[in-house]
Amino acid sequence: MQEAMIKRAKELLADGSVDRVIGWKRGEFAYDITPAVFTTAEELDRDFVCDDFTAANVSKYLVKETQKEGKILAFLKPCDTYSFNQLVKEHRIDREKVYVIGIEGGPKLDIEKIKAKGITGILSVKNEDYTLKIETIYGTQTMPFYEAILGKCASCKSKKHVVFDELIGEDGDVLDSNRFEMVEKLENMTAQERFDFWRDQLSKCIRCNACRNVCPACTCENCVFDNPKSGIDNKAPADSFEENMFHIIRAFHVAGRCTDCGECSRVCPQHIPLHLLNRKFIKDINELYGEYQAGADTTSRAPLNTYDKNDCEPSVVHERGVE
Amino acid sequence: MQVNENFEPVIVAFCCNWCSYAGADLSGTNRLNYPTNVKIIRVPCSCRVNPMFILRAFQKGADGVIICGCHPGDCHYTSGNYFTRRRITLLYSMLDFLGIERNRTRLEWVSAAEGAKFAATMQQFTEDVKALGPNRRLEDLRCRKQ
After folding, report:
1. Per-domain residue ranges for chain B?
2. Where are the alpha helices (DSSP H) in chain A?
3. Test the A interface: residue of B93, B121, B128, B144 with most A CBs within 10 Å
């Protein structure tokens, strides 16, 4: 697929229909992939990469990119197209300035899961018939492909591109995912158990702000957490309250707009399952205000942007589940 | 948990200017008692209550937070309280998901004519929070009064 993508990108650059290309390039290690903008065919040949580690969602970069002159070509996986659509809906991306090529999605690999098997000194990772051949400085090792996929890919919600100008590869369907399993498990715990679970998780937070910076729904020019008067501004938490506050408010600010792309949990250096907070909101919205998938279209109103006269009262929270 | 008989909770009540604040006023002019634990903050509309206000109240030492607004359909700004209802339902649900006691948060609709309801609601809510004891799960230790 990588060759087809580079070929098409070069064609579009050559005939002048786009001025830039956003994709991924390799970092220091083979599995170290980062989003990058390319402007020439030579750069594409040299650096462009699309493999099992290109999990990063490039839609958020398009907010800044479409403010510049000229048109940009973006390669979007199915999950990225939801974020893209949501940003178009919020008028954060100028749709006219982007040429979207939909590419086949994951599952993508999580290097941490490979390292967790005790495999170190990794030189390259190859997928051969769903068995990973991992070349290391100590020799070749193997592990099953599906044991190393990202958490967000394990509970993939859709392989369908909701927006594209052309496709490379095939379009899939919306999947019947099991993504609310863990949320349900937590809901069935007692309040004390839930509190202990989250204290355990959130106390790991170092306030690196990676979750906020990667989140395609977090595109405010001035973030509330950057305000020194907010009481929890951009600094390491000094009290457990600050971790709670940051994560509750961040999840709340993206409620109804979060497309569940799972980037927050992927980038978290402390491996906090942040997507569970967003999924809780999605699950509640689906249950209380009707099924809603953010980014699935550009016309519907977000659930927190509208109301119904017959909405339930907050007392429903008290009536369900375990205390 | 040991219940401290002398525990007096701090309750923060966000009251909408047009209904609940006037309701509180009415309960006063009618000489109805409601607990002195309740600290009222007047807001132009219940919809003005940002989720951060609620968490901030807990940070600064509140043991319970109650939001009072006009009855659905009676909003001075036509639809503010409908938005409040959705927002606050989701926020309370999230707090519950994080293991914060449910009875520390409440939303009530109190009109300007319901002085008695205001007093009764506050009475009831204060008792509920008193039974829960001090807020320990969502407090900021640096703000704790010695």
Report:
1. 11-136
2. 2-14, 41-47, 61-65, 78-89, 111-115, 151-154, 181-187, 191-202, 210-214, 240-253, 263-267, 275-289, 316-319
3. B93
